[in-house]
Structures are given as C-alpha cells and as structure tokens.
Write a structure and sequence with these properties.
Blueprint: H1 11-14, H2 27-35, H3 72-82, E1 95-104, E2 123-132, E3 147-155, E4 158-165, H4 178-185, H5 201-209, H6 214-220, E5 235-236, E6 241-244, E7 250-259, H7 268-277, H8 281-291, E8 297-306, E9 331-341, H9 346-351, E10 364-365, H10 370-386, H11 470-477, H12 481-496, H13 501-515, H14 517-527, E11 565-569, H15 576-587, E12 592-597, E13 603-604, E14 610-611, E15 615-616, E16 627-629, H16 634-641, H17 644-655, E17 659-662, H18 664-670, E18 678-680, H19 684-695, H20 703-707
Parallel strand pairs: 11-12, 11-16, 12-15, 16-17, 17-18
Antiparallel strand pairs: 1-2, 1-9, 2-3, 3-4, 5-7, 6-7, 6-10, 7-8, 8-9, 13-14
Helix pairs in contact: 4-5, 5-13, 6-11, 12-14, 13-14, 16-18
Bound molecules: CIS-heme D hydroxychlorin gamma-spirolactone.
Amino acid sequence: MPSKKTDAPKQSEAAGTQTPDRANTNAKLQSLEADRSDATGHALRTNQGVRIADNQNTLKAGDRGPSLLEDFIMREKITHFDHERIPERIVHARGTGAHGFFQSYGNHAELTKAGFLQDPEKITPVFVRFSTVQGPRGSGDTVRDVRGFAVKFYTDEGNFDLVGNNMPVFFIQDAIKFPDFVHAVKPEPHNEIPTGGSAHDTFWDFVSLVPESAHMVMWAMSDRAIPRSLRMMEGFGVHTFRLINAEGVASFVKFHWKPKQGVHSLLWDEAQKLAGKDTDFQRRDLCEAIETGDYPEWELGVQIVPEADEHTFDFDLLDPTKLIPEELVPVTPLGKMVLNRNPDNFFAEVEQVAFCPGHIVPGIDFTNDPLLQGRLFSYTDTQLSRLGGPNFHQIPINRPVAPNHNNQRDALHQHVVHKGRASYEPNSIDGGWPKETPPAAQDGGFESYQERVDAYKIRQRSESFGDHFSQARLFFQSMSPTEQQHIIKAYSFELGKVEREAIRAREVNEILANIDLKLAAAVAANLGLPAPKAGTVQVKGSKLAESPALSQMNHPGVVGIKGRKIAVLLANGVDAASVDRLVKALEAHSARPMLLGPTSAPVKAADGKQLPVDASMEGMPSIMFDGIVVPAGKASTDALAASGLAKHFVLEGYKHLKALVLTKELATGLGLKEDKGLLLGDDQKTVDAFVKAVEGHRVWEREAAAEAVPA
Ligand code: HDD
C-alpha cells in the first residue's frame, strides 16, 4: 500500500481552500457567467481601456495621404485579427456543443464512490461536444463518418470527461496505430480530397490490410454513420473502465448514452444532398431544438461486469474492437443528461473546450486497454499546440468547479495571480499548504486502483485480441433486411470510389468474405468482381446468433414526434382553415410545422387572407423535414401540381420514405398510391395516422414502390 501523509488537511481546516465545495452545485455556471462579456451600454475601447473616437478611419497624413505607423488603434485591431485562428483539432475538427446537466437516478454507492452518482438531488453541469472525425472545421455535417460524443461533467470532485463516440468499438486495438489510421482516413496528401469522407484509396488500403478494423468499418458503413440528428444518436465510452466503491471493490463497466429521441438516421441520398444544401444541418438542428425548449435527453447507463467475470467472455474486455452484447450484460441506467443551453460564443466554448479521457474523479479508473492507455497521453499533448500552452485548464469552459490549488506555476497565458511564497511541497513558509488528501470514502484524494502487474516488458498483442470477424458478423446478422441492404450499398459506394482494383478485391476477399459470404457476394457483384467462395480464416463465431440491441430499428425513442420538422406546402388559393387545422394538430404533438411557399413571399389564401411563410420550398427542400403535409384548396393543389419545384419536393419526400399528407388530386397527378404513410385528407384520423408514420421515422413498407421514383 502507498504510504499516506498524516498531516493531511481536516475537512474543516481546508474549507474554502482545498476541499470540494459540495454545497455550490451552480458554481460552474456562476464562474462561466463571470467570464461572459456583454457590451450593451458600453463604450468601444482599446484592449488597454482607451475610449475610441473613430472606428472608421486609419490615422493618415491628410485625408488622401499615407497611413501613419503611430496609429496604435488600427495596429492593435489588425494585430489581434491576424491571430484570431488557432489550430483546428487534428481529428474531430468539425463539431458543435451545448451546455446541460446530469442528474443521477439514485445512489449508486454500491458501484462507485464518485460523488455525482450518489445523490439524485445533485445537479452536475455538463458541456457536450459532438463532432465528425475526418473533415476539417468547415466540412459538412452529414457526411458518412463516426460522430464524437464527448461529455465534460463539472463534478464537485473535479472534471470527469467521457470522451466517446456514437459507435461502441474502434478501428484499431493499439494507440500506436492511431496516426496510421488517421493518415489513411484523412484526405489524400497530394490533392487533399475527399473532404469529410472515407470513400478513397488510402482509407480502404489501410482497413483492408488491418483486419482488426473489420468490426468498426461495419459500423461506419451502417446507418449509424449518417445520423438524422445529433439528438438521435447513442453514445458509448467504448473502452472498458472501472468503477470503484468506497470499500475499494471494483467492477468493469462500459458506458452507454441512450437517447430519449430514439436512434434514427438519414438515408444516404439525403445525407449527400444535405452536405451541399445545408452544411450546418446537424449543428442547426441541435441549436434550434434547444432554442425552442425542446431539450434533448439521454440516459447514462453502464454494463457491469464483476472483476471475477473478467475472463468469461469469448472476447477480451480490454480489446476496444469488441462490445459486450446487451443481451449478455444489460445496460443498468444510472442517470439522465439534458442539454438545455446553447453556447454564447462558439469559439470560447466549443472550439476551446479540451477533453481528455485522463480526466477522471475518485470512484472511476482506467483499464489496461492499450488504446485507452495511449489516449491518456495524446489529448493533453494535443492541447499544448492547439490551445497554446499548459494553462488551457484555466480557459473558462475547461475550468473545474472544484478548486484546483497546486504548485504548478507560470507558463504561457497564466491567468491566476498566485499568492503565497512557497510554490513547492513540502514547505513550512506557507504552513505546508496546499496539502495532500488521503483517500477516503468521500471527499478523499484520488487513489489509483491497485492492480497487480507481473509480466515481461514486451511489444506484443495478446492472443485474446486475435478474433477480428466474429463480432463484425454478429453485427451484420443482427441488422434488419433494410439495414443490411444499406450496408451493402455503403460498401459498394465507397469501394466503387477506390481506384485501385487490388484494394477493392482485398476488402471483398480478405475482409468481407470472413464476415459474411452473402455480404461479400453482393458487394462483389456491385463492383464487377467474382464472389468469394470462402473466407480466408477460420472464424469462431459469437455465443449469440443475433443481438437485437444492435439494430437501431429497435430503438424508436419515447418522445413521439416531439421536435420533428414537418413541411406544410402552400400556394395561392390554399384553404386557410385546413392550414390552421393541420398546424394546430401537429403542434398538439409538439412537432415543428413550417409553412413553405413557392417563394418567401406570403401566400394568398382562398379567403383572401395573406399567409406569411417561414421559407420557400427551394430554401428549405424536403430533405430537411421528417414529413410533408399539403392542406386542402383546389387552386393551391392545381398550382402545386403545375410547379416543378413543388412536385420535386413531394416526390423526393415520397422517395425518402417520409410520411405525407396529400390532397387526392395531387397524389393522383403524381401517380402516388396511398400507403401506411401516404395519407389523404386533413381530418383528425389522417393526422393521427400521419403522426404514427412520423414516429416510425420512415415508411419502410414503401421501399419497393419508391425505387422507381427518380431521386
Ligand atoms: Fe480521440 C479527439 C473520441 C481514439 C487522439 N477523440 C477526440 C474527440 C473524440 C474522440 C470524441 C473530440 C473531442 C472534442 O470534441 O474536442 N478517440 C475517441 C474515441 C477513441 C479515440 C472514442 C477510441 C475509442 N483518439 C483516439 C486515440 C488517440 C486519439 C487512440 C491517440 C492516440 N482524439 C485524439 C486527439 C484529439 C481527439 C488527437 C483531437 C483533438 C483533441 O484530441 O482534443 O488527441
């Protein structure tokens, strides 16, 4: 056992200086407030506080003469501007964030001594950043990619960062391969193409040579990689972590975030079109949802494995390319997270937030997962160049609620004016402060879990990490037929963009054939390659034939159509009463109907009233909506039927399997037949059926009929 200092602070002694301030749960928000600057009512000044009289003109020798170097006001302004940008993140550069809170469902003391999981009354502030991985800061939101799901919990005992993704596994098993993987997926070095996607030679070259990536690539080719909304994604801590209770008993855990909004995706055609028509589709969606009070919510849960059961699985818990099927170990809910506040300033908050898997609190600890171990180094290291030095924890968004006195001093951008004479320990000059806190059941110092390690120093992968295909197969075989088709199409699309035939063939023969021969044959056919007859390795297979939890069709959500966007198509001559009826009925379900006209100008209803519209059908195309509604009105139906823009809107919505309410004439004119989600009329029964169809996200039964409609 490590030796403990006996002169550690008593809780009372240290109050206000060292122990966590447990009473002040809102301290983070208050400290953030203190740093928010509102210029309303204030004079324009220089950074030195001098009032500025003229912000329009440089100081010049004469009104047509040369500018003068002495113009400190112009120089200060331009100098600051010249340095406005900081390096973007090497991965996960494109992202968006939101504030919120975490609340535990109960006291989970049997599992962990972490304070934020002990008290259902306690509100822990959080900041979340969602991201894509491959693209730069300005890339599209809806590209096929993994989504980052990083949560910073500002707990009373220090910051806890759960830096996860929307997929439960990863591409590689060892951190030393991360630069290789990232170089392969990033745009090709000679022309910096493609932006935001993995459909290119270097990515497929790498993953076809590295079979440990097979499972994660399967997830990346699934609908999980094109989420409908950041609000509709699951989140995963990926690695196995440890939770430790006050008695020192540890359990292995996998962290899960389950969205109340359900798990839903875009269709590939929508995702591609949105990447051009609204690059900001997902950040806009999150921002608008919070703005309108439609706060997204997730449940935090854990799969718990007692230490004694570490070796009972047919995979290694330390292998980050494996998940624990939920059918083997169900997810135990711990608490909820609600996002209820948009950032005030994107740069200060979203860009400057610095996550690190190494930010943990007492009651949580790491495992020896070699990917996690490497991450513990990488994140702090990257912030040094991204945020300009080791004081990035003092930036408001990164500052913990808990006090953080220590003897670290100086360095670039030091904000703290440290008082006291001793910046070393032990000291007698400052009474020995700040002092260590011994570990304790509550409010103790951090103590690493004591794990016995008795081994050779060695560069070697454990044999227990050797099965790369069983879980990839389990994933494919757990998908619905529709999801399987989407996966086949995604592989075919991406490999179709690969120029080198040898890479395409290697992926089909040496990776896909080991996962599932039907999958390999279907992709091979689309690429014009021969279907492989057998795999290249013996795959042992999983204990389970299927894991229904892996299919997102089994995660419909619990909030109905709350926050779903519905397009209401108007043209001159529309029946205003019908519009009113439909809009009210949708609002009663907390959906977000938007009135769209042929242009942004108001529409003239049949009764002569002017109806202002929210946007034009061109400005907000059908791909931005979850459903489409056409109110009654003979003249308006005729006008929509005569408009190429309106016809394309409706047909595209139909093709994308969206719920539609149409007038009979319009449906007939477009050659569309009624189905479970194509409804006629505007009465309550029609609305009820429409709501049900939107709840189902897509009218999957329509797939065959929609095939024939041009995209
Ligand atoms: Fe990472 C950013 C998630 C493996 C090195 N990573 C980053 C972000 C997320 C993840 C969500 C964005 C955080 C933010 O919003 O600011 N990374 C993961 C997951 C991984 C993973 C779930 C595997 C399970 N990452 C990983 C490895 C390494 C890194 C193995 C290096 C050895 N990741 C980084 C980084 C980044 C980063 C280069 C870029 C910006 C940053 O850290 O702050 O250090």
